[in-house]
Amino acid sequence: MPHRTLPVALAVLLAFALPLAAADKSKTASASVNQPSYDQPQPQVETLDLNMYQRIRLEGLNHSHAMEYASALFDDIGPRLTGSQNLKHANEWTRDQFTAMGCSNAHLEDWGEFGMGWQQLNTWVRMTSPDMAVFIAQAGPWSPATNGAVTGSAVWIDVSDEKDLDKYKGKLAGKIVLYGAMREVPPVEKPLWTRMDDKELKELTEWPLKPRDRGDFLQQYMKRLALRQKIGKFLADEHALAVITPSRDGQNGGGSGGTIFDDSSVGFGWEAYKRESANPLPVVVMAIENYGRVYRLLKANVPVTMEMSVDTKFTGDHEHGFDTIAEIPGTDPKLKDEVVMVGGHLDSWASGTGATDNGAGTVVAMEVMRILNTLQVKPRRTIRVALWTGEEEGEFGSYGYVRQHFGQVPLSTAPDQLKLPEWVRKPGGPVQLKPESQKISGYFNLDNGSGKIRGVYLQENAAMAPIFAQWIEPLKDLGVTTLTLRNTGGTDHEAFDAIGIPGFQFIQDPLDYGSRTHHSNMDVYEELSPGDLAQAAVVEATFVYNTAMRDQMLPRKPLPHPELEEQLKAPLRNLMPGAEAGEGH
Ligand SMILES: [Zn+2]
C-alpha cells in the first residue's frame, strides 16, 4: 500500500506541536511496552495515506448513497421516537443494511429499560365558533388520546405560580384549555439557512477566559418543570378535555410559517415516557399564528368553541432501548482487538421524520461504513459503527453502551442531588474504567443537522490538536479548516468524553437546523443537503480510517476527576492575615 508522508509546516500546527514535544519527553522516560499505546509518545508527523484520502473522496462524492438511505429511513420507516415500533423497525433495518453492505457482526445491543412505547395515529384541531378554522397542531410526545372527537369552549389560563390555579377551581370541566403566554412573532428578516463564515469559525477557536457559569439555570428549570407537573395534574383533576400549547420560536424567527416544535417541552414533565410520570391528559402543540387567533379572541372576551381529536397508541410500559452495532474487522494481528467507533443517534422526535436530527448523522455513519466496505479497506484496528437510541431523552443509548463496555462516572450522592432525576444529577466520580476501555482508540459523532463538516471540537484534549491539524490539511478544499479546544455538548460523544476516552463531535454548518428543523414538524427529507451529507461522509470516513491505521491509539486527555470539582472550586481558607477566628458577616 503506497504510504506517503505529508510534510506539514503550518503555524497552527507548530503552535500546538511545540508544547507537546516537551510533554512527550517526560512520557518517554516512563513509557513501557505494557502501557496502552494512547499513553505512549505520539509521533510528531502523522503518516497519511493520501491515495486513500482521494479514493474515499471519489467514492463518497461521486457515488453517494446517503439520500437513498435517507428516503428509505425517513419516508418509509418514518419518525423514530424511543420506545416506538418505528424505532424497533429502524434498528432492524439499519442492522440488515450494515450486513448487506458487507459489515460483520451486525446486531442490536440492549441498553436497558426505557419506558412507554407510543405512536401518534392522528391529531386535528379546529375552531367552530365564532368562525370555522382548521389549525396546524400535533400531539405532544406520549400524549394520551382524547375520547374521540371532543368539543368544548376554549379557556386561556394565566398561571405562573401554583397559587394561580385556585381561581380556576371548578371552572374547567369540559373545557379545552390554552396553556402558555402568547409570544412575539418577529418578522423573518434574517436568513433561516446559513453557513459559518470565517469570522464565526475564528471566534470558535478562541478560548473563553471566563468559565461558563450556568448559575441557577438548573434550579430554575427544575422549578418550572415541577410547576408544569402540578398544572397537568390540576387540569386532569378538574376534568378539562385537553390542553393546547403554543409552539416556541426557533432562531431568527424560524418558529413561524407552519413550523411547530414538538418535543418533551410540550407535555407535563420531562419523563412523560414513564408510566408513573405520564401526561395526565391529552396535550397538543399548535402553530403560533393559530394559537394567536384564539388567544386574541379570548382576551377580548369573545366566546370560542373548539373541536379536536387526538388519537394515539401506547404499547408496553417497559420497552427496552437498543443500539445498532456493526463492524469492519481489524486485520493487524496486534491491533485488531482495538476499535475505532463512529456513529450518531437513530432515534428522533415524532412530528417530522427526524431527517436532520439525527437522520443526517445516521445516514452519514451508514455512508462511512458503505464507503469503507466498497473500497475494501483492510483496517489494522476494527472499525465499529453504533447508532444510538434514547438520545433525545438523555443520551441513554450511548451512556448505556459505554457503561456496559468501557466504564462510567458514578453520579453524585449528595443529599440535594439524590432528589433530582438521574439525567440532571452531577457526576460524583471517581471514574470507574473497565478493561475494555484500554481497547478503544476514539469515537466520532455527527449530530448537528445536515450541514457539512467545518472542523472538530477537541473537547479540551490538547494532544489531539497537532494530529487533527495534519489530518485536515488535505481536506481544506472541502471546507474543513477549524480546530477548537472547546467542548461541545448535547450529544452522544459526551458518554465517551466523560470517562476520558477521546470522543469528538464535528463542527458543522448550521443551515436551518436551529431555526427550523431541530425537533420540528419540518424535520423532513427536503431539509437535507445532499452535497453536505456526502462531504460529511468523506470527512468522517477519513478520520475513522486514519484512526484505524495509525500505529498508536489516539492520545487521551488526563482522566477527569469530577469528585474533586467542589473542593477545587471552593474559596481559599484562612486567607486574610488580619481575620479573627469565626465566621464573617
Ligand atoms: Zn440530535
Write a structural description.
It is a single chain. With 585 residues, the protein is an alpha/beta fold. It is built from 16 helices and 20 strands. An eight-stranded mixed β-sheet has the order 3-12-14-13-17-20-18-19, with helices on both faces. Strands 5-4-11-7-8-9-10-6 form an eight-stranded mixed β-sheet, covered by helices on one side. β18, α12 and β19 form a beta-alpha-beta unit. α2 runs antiparallel to α15 and α8 crosses α15. The chain is globular and about 75 Å long. The N and C termini lie far apart (73 Å). The protein binds zinc ion. Zinc ion binds next to α8. The site of zinc ion (ZN) has 6 residues, from α8.
**Which structural category fits the helices and strands?**
alpha/beta
Strand residues, percent:
15-25%
Give the proportion of residues in helices: 25-40%
> Could you give the distance between the termini?
73 Å
Rg of Cα set: 26 Å
How would you sum up the major sheet? 8 strands, mixed
How many DSSP E strands? 20
Helical element count?
16
Small molecules bound: zinc ion
Attribute tags:
binds zinc ion; disordered N terminus; single chain; eight-stranded mixed beta sheet; 585 residues; globular; alpha/beta
